[in-house]
Amino acid sequence: MIIHIPTGQRFNNRKEAKIYFGSAYYYKIEKEKKDLLFINNIQSATNEYSTQILQKQCNRKLFHSK
Predict the structure, then answer these.
(1) What is the residue range of 36's domain?
(2) In whole angstroms, what separates CA 23 from the centre of its chain?
(3) Closest CA to 31 of 8, 19, 49
């Protein structure tokens, strides 16, 4: 599952997210690694996402939700 952190929009897979945002914008936010939260071990096809990045995103999400 993919969550767009600023809006809280949830997607079941990358295809749904690409359709919603458009391919160019989706790849841009995926490359920046700050607005997308990947959960349930769903990772980028490039395998650039690591546990540390996911942990930082989770912490940021918790920080902003308070």
Answers:
(1) 2-65
(2) 14
(3) 49
